[in-house]
Structure formats: structure tokens, C-alpha cells
Amino acid sequence: MRHPTRCRAVRSTLRHRWEKERTHADLRERRSTGATEQETGLPTGRLAFRAVYDRVEASADLAAALGVGTGTALLRRTYRTRPAGEGTPLNVCRSCLPYALAARNPELLDASNEPWPGGTMHQLSTVGVEVARVEEVVTARPPTDAEARELGLAPGVPVMEIRKTLHDVSGQVVEVADILLPGDRYAVRCVTRL
């Protein structure tokens, strides 16, 4: 059963081109809006954003995805954004960057700098990384009990899980993010320009 007052969103593959173009925009433009505002149509002031950073060791899965050794230091950033007035997030994103890469700009290690104007692609540009390719794999599955509670899901509502991988111009993976979307509030729109 869909809750009638909850915000809905559409995640489009066009967001990646928009985010990359913004890496070259001035600070005022980058602060004016973000990807969640684009997906929901809500202005920045109607969204509540929370970021938690921690240093973790790469699990076997993340090490393989990032092309690093198991146990390599990673900067894990957990993002939750919700519409102001709603108690549950629109999504939960856990992003991992090689810690040594992020540490090239100490501002990237400080969660109080979030939301970062221009997002991850702009953050990476501050350490000399240009993103050339984005890969997203979307799967649907039943949520865990903890995920259902966190996202405020009714029984039987699935989640969509996205594994997003950013590659730089040399082909090196520079970020792996696992994004959890509530199936009753999100649609994924894939656009291929031919």
C-alpha cells in the first residue's frame, strides 16, 4: 500500500551527464540545486540531508569492485536525504572511495562539507580525477527487516538496489556506491541517445 503523502522520485541516467557538466560550473551554480532536487522536483530548502563519513577496510566485494587489495583503507560516505516533514529517507547511499585518493584534498574527508556543491564528480575533480564512465546495475529484491524499517516500507514493498561504479579516463574505478531505493517511491528511467 502506497502512502499518499510521500514524495516520489524518478532517477534518470541523464543525471550523470548533468553532474559531469556541473564539475566546471561556478560555485553559485553548483550550490543552486542537486541531483535529488532534479529527481523529486523539490527545492533545496524542502530537503533534509545527512552525511556520515567513516574510514573502513575494503571487504572482498568492495576490493574486487574498486580493483584494490582486501583491507585497503576506504572512505565510506553514507547519505540519507528525505523531504522535510517526512520521517524516512528517499534513499540510502553508501559510497566508497579509496581513502588515499580522497585524502589528496582534506576537505573531502570532512562530512561537515556536505552536501558538496556539484556532488561526487566535482569532489573527484578537486583531486585531479575526471570521470569518464558511469556503470549502474539495478536489481530488485525484498528488503531486509532493517531496510524496511529505515525506509518506512509497507509489507511486500520491494527495494531497488543500484551498484554504481565511476571510472576515470584511464579506466580506473574511483568510486563504488550502493544505493537503496524504495520501490513504492522511485522509478528508474533509462535513456540511451542514439
Automatic annotation (TrEMBL):
What InterPro entries does the record point to? Bact_HTH_transcr_reg, Chorismate_lyase_/UTRA_dom_sf, UTRA
All copies of domain UbiC transcription regulator-associated, residue ranges: 39-187
Q: Which Pfam families match?
A: UTRA (PF07702)
Biased composition, class Basic and acidic residues, residue ranges: 21-32
Q: Quick one: where's region Disordered?
A: 21-42
Report the protein name in the record.
UTRA domain-containing protein
